[in-house]
Amino acid sequence: MPDEDVVNLRELLTGKERDHDGLGTILAHRLFARRPGSPGAEFVDLAVLPPGTSIGRHRHGADRETYVVLDGGGLMYRDGREFRVGPGDVVVNEPYGEHGLRNDSAHEDLRLLVFEVAVREERRDGPGGAAHGEGADGAHGA
After folding, report:
1. Cα(7)–Cα(29) distance, rounded to whole angstroms?
2. Within a 13 Å sphere around the CA of 10, how many CA atoms are in the beta-carbon half?
3. How distant, in Å, are the alpha carbons of 6, 7, 14, 15 from that of 11?
């Protein structure tokens, strides 16, 4: 296969300094962005948080942003609570909720996939709004 047919993400990742007023410089690449008027996710990003960096605490509007931890681990903040996340964990950040993620490891990168979907109609399932399959801490195990 010719080299021009394959692109390695290491070549695409670019630095994002103090993402959402977080710590240090993370690496990110937007793999996909929805065209206006098209259905589906707004965007899909790959993010790498080197040790000691973070995505600062922030809020979105009427969208649901999901973090899928691919590798590494860290401390997730969501709506006033902190909990640990690691490989295979899926964290759904609800519309208007506050969330952030810090790689508190001394040596290991935290890699994650981030995707956002606009929410047209809010629906809550049971006490606290936990969706089917979600644990008490809000993380889904893989």
Report:
1. 12
2. 0
3. 11, 7, 8, 12
Residue 18: helix, strand or coil by DSSP? Answer: coil
Angle at 47 between CA 43 and CA 50, to 5 degrees: 165
Confidence of residue 7 (pLDDT cuts 50, 70, 90): confident
pTM here?
A: 0.75
Please give the pLDDT value at position 137.
Answer: 46
Sheet architecture: strand order including 14-17: 14-17, 25-33, 43-49, 110-118, 63-71, 90-93, 139-140
Position 101, amino acid: L
Angular region, 100: left φ>0, alpha ψ -120 to 50, beta rest: beta
Domains of the chain (ranges, CATH numbers) = 22-120 (2.60.120.10)
Residue 50 CA to residue 100 CA, distance in Å, equals 15
How many of the other CB atoms lie within 10 Å of CB of 48?
20
Q: Retrieve residue 53's tokens.
A: 């960096």
- Residue 131 confidence (pLDDT): 42
